[in-house]
Specification:
5-stranded mixed beta sheet, globular, alpha/beta, 317 residues, single chain
């Protein structure tokens, strides 16, 4: 509904689901969220989303709503609006979520991979503002990517562009959840950082990390907290992950020549503890002419990113 001032954004995650009502300036006017009832099946989750969408729209006439944007982890088909078995959503086997929402609300609906949608949000409202060529990289439980090329989202031939986390960085490296060995995600993601700390635990039994958690329960957050407090072991583990991320970004930079790479959660929380070794690796592995036009920066939107991601599907035209 061209010109309508309101947009409904839907965020589907394995842990929580959320719906927002926003205007075209990115102001969130209403928001509801709930823990995802993922184990009850996709129908139960969809019913949750229906109820929350009704709540955020309230008394707003439907003709005043431009459309519904849905952000969800892949794999998915953004053109057909179908979600295909995301790892964190068991039983979601070819769910036609776009059609389901359009039939329920009578509003045009768009579906996008969550990393792509967040790239749009950071490009429009966050750390990517003003760029024409930008890569956004999630850096948390997994490492994903969204690409803005020549000012537009680039999805690839079948919605698989930007899977930076599954580029091979280390031949014969650790097994990745995708089934390959030596992926960036298997070397630098949050779980990979925790795994690496466990592997090296006996070399640093005095580390503050082990005062926070036992080896079998340690997380990347424990390591970041210890590193920020000055722990040498934790800083070494983070520096190693930052180095691997720098190699991954160097590969992206050589192929795409972007102006900016925007990094998610771990870069935001750890700051220079990962960015300094990352930039050193970038200097070693990327040409100087590629580097001289490239900034690598933490994301800016924080918790707002998930709210704005789906909304931006209707602001990108």
């Amino acid at each position: 509904m061209s010109g309508a001032p309101y947009i409904v954004g839907v965020d589907i995650g394995g842990t929580k689901v959320a719906c927002v009502l926003a205007d075209e300036q990115g102001n969130i006017l209403a928001r509801h969220w709930q823990p995802t009832r993922a184990q009850e099946g996709w129908q139960a989750v969809v019913q949750q989303l229906f109820e929350m969408a009704e709540q955020v729209m309230g008394d707003v006439p439907r003709q005043r709503v431009r459309g519904i944007g849905i952000s969800c982890g892949g794999p998915l088909d953004s053109q057909k609006g179908i979600v295909y078995s995301p790892p964190n959503l068991p039983g979601w086997d070819a769910v036609p979520i776009k059609r389901i929402f359009e039939e329920r609300f009578g509003l045009p609906t768009r579906l996008e991979n969550d990393a792509n949608a967040t790239a749009l949000a950071e490009h429009r409202f966050g750390a990517g503002r003003g760029t024409r060529n930008m890569a956004f990289m999630t850096w948390g439980t997994g490492i994903g990517g969204g690409l803005i090329l020549d000012g537009r989202l680039y999805r690839g031939t079948n919605d698989l562009a930007g899977e930076i986390g599954h580029t091979t960085i280390l031949l014969g490296g650790p097994l990745c959840g995708c089934g390959k060995h030596g992926c960036l995600e298997a070397l630098a993601s949050g779980p990979a950082i925790a795994r690496r700390a466990r592997e090296l635990a006996q070399s640093a039994p005095e580390s503050a990390v082990w005062q926070m958690a036992e080896p079998d329960t340690v997380t990347a957050q424990h390591i970041v907290d210890a590193a920020v407090a000055g722990d040498t072991f934790a800083r070494f583990v983070l520096a190693e992950a930052g180095t691997y991320m720098g190699i991954g970004i160097a590969n992206v930079a050589q192929v795409l020549n972007p102006e900016r790479v925007v990094l998610g959660t771990i870069a935001v929380k750890a700051g220079e503890l990962v960015l300094e070794p990352l930039r050193h690796a970038l200097k070693v592995h990327a040409w100087s002419r590629v580097r001289e036009v490239l900034e690598v920066v933490p994301a800016q939107l924080g918790d707002r990113a998930q709210d704005l991601a789906a909304v931006c599907l209707w602001l990108a035209d």
